[in-house]
Design goal:
244 residues, mainly alpha, 66% helix, flat
Length: 244
Amino acid sequence: MAALSLLYVGVIFSVLTYHNKGSPSKITRLSSLALNGAVAVLVGVIFAGNNAFGGFERSWMHVGDMLVFFIVVGILSSRVCQQDAEWANKIPIRDGLGINCKSLLVLFVIMCTVKILALTDFVDPSMILADGLKLTKLAHYMWNFVAVLVLEVLFGLFFSLAFDDDASHELMIGTIVFMTLVSVASIFGIQDYMSDMYGMNGRGIWIKLGIVVGLCVVGIVGGRISGRRNTGYQGVGEGTSLNV
């Protein structure tokens, strides 16, 4: 679950970085949000601890993770702290809402916020396991670490919503569809070890997949249709909005 969440974060920020590679002001804003996320993950690695001193992570892996995230924090800090750095202006979130990807991003941002609160304060992690299985201390830590990664996903979606264009909104929705398919494929073989309370096995997982993919398709198609009536709307692959 943590590995999948890390992949989710990596894909979202990679797509956003590539899409905005020609816009220094947006890259600065994205770097600022990514810096906050990188610091949060670094703190999580610190709290994981070195196995040699009673922590969870193997000694060499912990040292490697610490070095990697120190480097990431340093790179992002150097970008944000440039004296001549340009900063993109915030786009009013209310503008352009409708049956489109931007409205879906608002929904997903709210869902991520609720999920973080649920993971940390309202949901018992042991309830996700099948009957007879126990939650270890390491598993409990990883559960909380996933909440940190969901926070990073929230940062990426918020950047697209508040600072980026229509094409970025479509890219984020497309990324959510892709990662939803990857998520289902990754847990398909271990459904027997998961509780049916949250619909993680049996028909529940397919119902969730259908709902998410269906909503995303409606958002993309609806945005394209309504966008034809709105001057300046450019989806993925339309005009020069993809920044390729």
